[in-house]
Specification:
The chain is 35% helix and 24% strand. It has three helices and four strands.
Length: 116
């Protein structure tokens, strides 16, 4: 009985220190957003994408016509983001880049963390 109690205690400790079981890898994605015609379009796109489950952060650049997104999920998450942009704003979105955004930071070289 003492062995079972010790084993149970060890399992509890491991579970508590390992973090949430559902936590996945944070991925980065850039969507090209076609149709934005003014600076007020960017907040509408950001709001739409932010509502997709798994999205952790969104930055929409009107001048670049891009949405940079950090998210947890798979291809279906990307499909949902693209569909949500179209449904909520009427703009077409497509995948422009997958991986790190380090290339956008002066003096840093891009180091993609994953590839399709």
């Amino acid at each position: 009985m003492k062995t079972i109690s010790s084993l149970f205690a060890l399992l509890v400790i491991l579970f508590m220190t390992s973090g949430p079981l559902s936590a996945g890898e944070i991925k980065e994605l850039t969507l090209k957003v076609e149709g934005m015609s003014c600076r007020l379009c960017a907040p509408a796109v950001k709001k739409a994408i932010s509502g997709v489950e798994g999205v952790k952060s969104v930055h929409v650049g009107y001048e670049e016509k891009e949405a940079r997104i950090q998210y947890e999920g798979d291809e279906s998450t990307i499909d949902k983001m693209i569909k949500t942009v179209k449904d909520a704003t009427g703009y077409n979105a497509s995948v422009a880049k997958r991986g790190s955004w380090d290339a956008a930071i002066p003096g840093k070289q891009a180091q993609p963390r994953y590839q399709r």
